[in-house]
What does this fold into?
Amino acid sequence: MNKRFYITTTLPYVNAEPHIGFALEIIQADVIARYHQSLGDEVIFNTGTDEHGVKIYRKATEAKQEPQAYVDIYAAKFDRLKQALNLSYTNFIRTTDENHKKAAVEFWQRCLKSGDIEKRISKINYCSGCELEKTASELVNGCCPEHPNLKLEEIEEENYFFKFSRYAKPLLDFYKKNPNFVVPDFRFNEIKKFVENGLNDFSISRLKRKMPWGIAVPNDDDHVMYVWFDALINYISTIGWPHDLKTFEKFWPGIQVAGKDNLRQQSAMWQAMLMSAGLPNSKKIFIHGFIISGNQKMSKSLGNVINPFDLVEKYGTDAVRYYLLRHINPFEDSDFTIEKFETAFTADLSNGLGNLVSRISGLIEQNQILIKKDKSAQLDKKFGELIENFQFDQALKFIWEKITALDVLIAETKPWVLAKEGKKDEVEKILNQAAAGIKEIAFLLEPFMPETAKKIQLIFAEKNIKKAEPLFPRLNTK
It folds into this structure.
């Protein structure tokens, strides 16, 4: 029986256009999903849009639109990433979906029944960029380190609170029993230290008269759910909870992919909420770094983002996927410039993989070699482990080492010289070896560069192979 596998990204906020940082996250998740599909697993891959909260409300107000009309426009823009980035996600959840709203209400009631929700008056420092309360110890020069350009807001009002302070020991016990829960290790150590220092209860509602755009709190028309409480529930509402428990129980718990600015929310707040609601905790959380420009994080609020649609239009989908997976460190922050991108495009794709495919197919056609049918490629164990450990850059390095080895084979054996010497059997042997190697490379490339992998497979599936057109164009660098 096939295994079941569930992976989800975080949900991007729809207060601006999609940017390269989220493209990185969803492509990483896509590789994992495609890898499990190749193993024959039954896969659910979830993404979607986070559509409530003060940032959305303010942006809609500025645009003189109703919030629902505003989020409808932006949700469609994020869903366009599926085609632009060649994504395989099965679920696209919006937090304005009716099933999600019902799930949020049920989840609230479960946490209330557990005694983990209470109403109280409080005074907090609030970052509208993070949509989170900030303690004094989290601030740098009196500002949120993630959004130094935004002034903190002092809020004093009556809200509902989740009793996060109750969950320090249960979380630490859970972490101890699950030593691989957060990847990489240094992020896991970071969240463990955060929990060990003690937890503060956090607000989970807003007054409706001040901020009406949210899911209504059950039995209290004066409040709407705080966006972080509502949004996190998408990970289970998208797979049927609580109305389709059969599907939910088949696929939950799952793997989550998130940026480092989501570490606290995903690996501590959400896990405590699941405990409160009496539900299993997540299986594993992969935390990726940021794409930066110089020393500065790329962020919508800082206005220095790169549009993934523009990159795809100019360079192609697989080139964008390749660069983000090979040259952006999965765990650390990485600098992105167009110059670095174009250098890698030319060296690795045009002159590397593309040239190799064209060269081998050309030699086969020129020498009229019939390629023997070989066994189906098998997934290398080391390669599979790299993918399962989110080491996308190392997995692609593994593939490119095979590309280099094939280049060396052709350069050292010189089949064109052997052909002139009439050594047809040797030429046939070398080029069959090369064809088998390039087909193995295509097989390994499938989760990373699916379109390119398919093109290579089609070229080398023919009995009479013709010289291939270049897979990647030469860039005009003038």
